[in-house]
């Protein structure tokens, strides 16, 4: 099984299941049973019937607060008994059961399965970390609703429960805001993209773009909710804002017309610091947040160059008024404004670790990306933290040092093998135990400058995400014990149609 359950042992005997499966469960878990039934029908054509107390059943699921949040127990004997702390735990128990069957149960194209035989066993499971996240950059390359739905399904199959969507960057704006239509009529489209590595300085002239409207977002939010995945919207400001400025140059520092950027990297075109711009940013972020009603909101904050502020008389005036001595402090005006208005609306707020360089409002959760050290710093300063260190969890880095790897963001020696991912410690080294409770979990990043298709996304994400899922579930151990389970798990990925990277391409050639 993968991720490995916390505890379990086999017993004598087997149980054979056949369609229709009769399941008794709490009324509140009806939806999870529906999702299971749909998946099973799609894979092997089986029927799942919900039965009432008193009737015979194949699976009997009961609520048990003792299992904890997202936790479950499974006992396979003369029938299957499930105990779960909540709906997520129930759905994870069903995922575990499917992993105990043939890989065919994960297929997206139906095939025949007459019977499903399980060995008798007991499982006890619950995660160590509540935030088991994946980040997808839909700005550099747009991924449509179908691609994101599919990724959500793959996350759920690995018991990952947060999908952070990076919705804007210099190269594209991906969510429609009716009050500011230019964000998508202009900002969602660029005239070309780099070919090969950005350093080669070659560009195609193929238009690229796309965006989600409110109905698309609602569809994704609902799809994710049914699979216990929470979507986290990110609007990245005041840097990484060139696509916004292409639409509305009045919010920039130079007033000059701009295009949606056709380079990868960090554009120097950032928002200006006038009151109207802060007002605009606040309005847009609150609108986008409203499309994701139950989600924490990420306000970006990474890599904001200050050269334009240094050269701007208006920005210098603001610095004088505020008594700032470093233009980088101007970024704090955005962080503070957006954080306060989101917190006032009862939203949790996340930001990249650069915000630690200015004053941070209590309650902000820090995504530590520059290094694990940044996670230590955030936790020691009393902030909750999501560990996303690029050295281990940037899946746009090379998967190996082999010659067959496709061009990636950083050149050799920046290599992140799945074995290295499996070795990640979620709690960063050097963090005093008194601060461990600040570490909410970890997140794997899929930045997409060099990921321009679903097939490439699969290749970069898998099998590294399989290794990550076990680490962040909290049951990772010895990589030699993990490898055969991973090999077996690849059959499930095959069934799901995932174009993963081979574990050892040199050997498999
Ligand atoms: C850094 S991480 C970035 C992204 C790039 C990524 C490439 C972060 C918050 N900013 O803009 O896509 O590196 O690995």
Produce the secondary structure layout:
Layout: E1 7-17, E2 21-24, H1 30-44, E3 48-50, E4 59-63, E5 72-76, E6 80-84, H2 87-99, E7 116-125, E8 131-137, H3 145-157, E9 162-166, E10 168-169, E11 172-173, H4 182-185, E12 189-190, E13 208-209, H5 214-226, E14 230-234, H6 242-247, H7 275-291, E15 297-298, H8 307-311, H9 313-322, H10 331-344, E16 349-352, E17 364-368, H11 372-380, E18 385-387, H12 390-393, H13 418-422, E19 439-446, H14 454-461, H15 464-473, H16 479-495, H17 505-508
Parallel strand pairs: 2-3, 2-4, 4-6, 8-9, 8-19, 9-14, 15-16, 16-17, 17-18, 18-19
Antiparallel strand pairs: 1-7, 5-6, 5-7, 10-11, 12-13
Helix pairs in contact: 3-5, 7-10
Ligand TNX is lined by residues 302-303, 352, 369, 394, 396, 409, 447, 449.
Q: What structural class do you assign from the helix and strand content?
A: alpha/beta
Number of E strands: 19
Sum up the overall morphology in one term. globular
CATH T-level fold name of the largest domain: TIM Barrel
For the termini, the CA-CA separation is 27 Å
Count of the domains? 2
Largest sheet geometry: 8 strands, parallel
Into which percentage range does the β-strand content fall?
15-25%
CATH superfamily of the largest domain: Glycosidases
Rg: 24 Å
Low-confidence stretches: none
Q: How many alpha or pi helices?
A: 17
Q: Which ligands does the model contain, each kind named once?
A: ligand TNX
Strand arrangement within the widest β-sheet reads 14-9-8-19-18-17-16-15
Residue share in helix:
25-40%
- The CATH architecture of the largest domain can be given as Alpha-Beta Barrel
CATH class of the largest domain: Alpha Beta
């Amino acid at each position: 099984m993968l991720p490995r359950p916390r505890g379990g042992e086999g017993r004598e005997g087997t149980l054979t299941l056949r369609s229709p499966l009769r399941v008794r469960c709490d009324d509140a878990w009806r939806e999870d049973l529906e999702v299971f039934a749909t998946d099973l029908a799609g894979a092997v054509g089986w029927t799942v019937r919900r039965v009432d107390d008193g009737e015979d059943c194949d699976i009997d699921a009961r609520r048990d607060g003792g299992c904890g949040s997202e936790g479950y127990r499974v006992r396979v004997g003369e029938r299957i008994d499930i105990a779960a702390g909540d709906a997520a735990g129930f759905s994870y128990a069903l995922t575990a059961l499917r992993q105990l069957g043939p890989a065919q149960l994960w297929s997206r194209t139906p095939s025949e399965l007459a019977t499903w035989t399980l060995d008798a066993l007991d499982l006890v499971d619950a995660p160590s970390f509540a935030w088991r996240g994946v980040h997808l950059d839909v700005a550099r390359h747009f991924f449509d609703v179908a691609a994101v739905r599919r990724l959500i399904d793959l996350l759920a199959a690995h018991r990952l429960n947060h999908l952070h969507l990076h919705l804007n960057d210099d190269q594209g704006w991906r969510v429609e805001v009716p009050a500011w239509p230019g964000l998508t009529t202009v900002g969602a489209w660029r005239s070309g993209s780099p070919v090969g590595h950005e350093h080669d300085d070659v560009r195609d002239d193929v238009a690229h773009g796309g965006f989600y409207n409110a109905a698309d977002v609602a569809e994704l939010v609902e799809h994710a909710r049914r699979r216990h995945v929470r979507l986290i919207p990110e609007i990245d400001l005041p840097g990484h804002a060139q696509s916004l400025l292409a639409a509305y140059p009045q919010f920039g520092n130079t007033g000059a017309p701009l295009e949606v950027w056709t380079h990868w990297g960090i554009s120097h075109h950032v928002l200006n610091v006038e009151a109207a711009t802060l007002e605009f940013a606040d309005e847009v972020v609150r609108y986008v947040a409203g499309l994701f009603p139950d989600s924490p909101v990420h306000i970006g904050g990474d890599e904001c160059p200050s050269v334009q502020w240094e050269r701007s008389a208006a920005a210098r005036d603001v610095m004088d008024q505020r008594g700032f001595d470093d233009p980088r402090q101007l970024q704090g005006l955005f962080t503070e404004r957006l954080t306060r208005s989101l917190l006032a609306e009862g939203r949790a707020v996340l930001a990249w670790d650069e915000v630690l360089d200015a004053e941070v409002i209590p309650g902000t959760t820090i995504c530590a990306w520059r290094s694990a050290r940044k996670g230590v710093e955030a936790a020691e300063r009393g902030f909750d933290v999501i560990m996303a260190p690029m050295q281990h969890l940037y899946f746009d880095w090379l998967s190996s040092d082999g010659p067959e790897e496709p061009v990636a963001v950083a050149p050799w020696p920046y290599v992140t093998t799945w074995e290295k991912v499996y070795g990640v410690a979620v709690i960063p080294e050097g963090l005093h135990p008194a601060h461990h409770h600040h570490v909410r979990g970890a997140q794997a990043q899929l930045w997409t400058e060099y990921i321009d298709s679903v097939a490439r996304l699969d290749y970069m994400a898998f099998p590294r995400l399989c290794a990550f899922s076990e680490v962040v579930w909290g049951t990772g151990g010895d990589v030699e014990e993990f490898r055969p389970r991973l090999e077996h798990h690849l059959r499930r990925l095959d069934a799901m149609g995932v174009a993963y990277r081979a574990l050892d391409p040199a050997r498999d050639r």
